[in-house]
Design a protein that fits this description.
This protein has six helices and four strands. The protein has helices at 24-33, 74-80, 113-121, 127-150, 153-170, 177-192, and strands at residues 48-52, 69-73, 101-102, 108-109. It folds into two domains: 13-121, no CATH class; 127-192. It is elongated, with a radius of gyration of 19 Å. A hairpin with a 5-residue loop joins strand 3 (101-102) and strand 4. By secondary structure, the protein is mainly alpha-helical. 43% of the residues lie in helices and 7% in strands.
């Protein structure tokens, strides 16, 4: 999970009409603002849906508020459902990725109680997410080993910086950014050791 930066200058007009509604314009704008990634799990290969951070069944006056709307995958949205337990709001929490820890096998955890509740409520430990995160790490290691096999140490470091580190900073559509950042911050020495 990373912080969501929504466009508050261009709120869809259908939310402010006489009879507000969540239509295709709202869905498109949410998906665009979040680069087609789920606000909770960061998967970009999703069938997305509108997520009401404060559930519309319990906060009907927030149903059409732009500040309350996020883009989420069907799984995270369904797991969260209308729960009102205290979880991390990726729109208002600065750098929520700093509250997460990962293992190279894709497992996710946190020492922060609110983030732990978020992981539990949205089931961010589900198998398909662990496998997708693990695949990112496995591909990185496989590619580094290939570059190492055909090149020299400088080529490995250059590959790592250019193809793994730099996209985290520049590719807004990149999925699982929190996991990738954690790998860079915590495993770079191990990855590049003896390379």
């Amino acid at each position: 999970m990373i912080q969501i930066n929504k466009d508050f200058a261009n709120i869809p007009s259908s939310l402010h009409s006489k009879t507000p509604k969540i239509d295709d314009e709202v869905k498109l704008k949410l998906a665009e603002d979040q680069f087609n990634k789920c606000c909770y799990c960061e998967d970009s290969h999703i069938k997305g849906t509108v997520e009401h951070f404060l559930p519309k069944s319990k906060y009907p006056n927030q149903k059409y508020e732009w500040e309350n709307l996020l883009w989420a995958c069907n799984d995270c949205n369904n797991f969260k459902s209308n729960k009102t337990v205290k979880i991390i709001n990726p729109l208002t929490t600065p750098n929520p990725e700093n509250l997460l820890e990962f293992e190279t096998n894709g497992q996710i955890k946190s020492t922060d109680s609110t983030m732990n509740e978020t992981i539990k409520v949205c089931d961010l430990k589900r198998k398909n997410l662990n496998l997708k995160r693990k695949a990112i790490f496995d591909d990185l290691i496989r590619n580094i080993e290939f570059v190492k096999h055909i090149g020299v140490k400088e080529n490995v470091i250059e590959y790592y910086l250019l193809h793994f580190v730099q996209p985290i900073k520049t590719d807004k559509e990149l999925n699982f950014v929190a996991f990738r950042k954690f790998i860079v911050e915590n495993y770079s020495n191990e990855i590049l050791k003896d390379k």
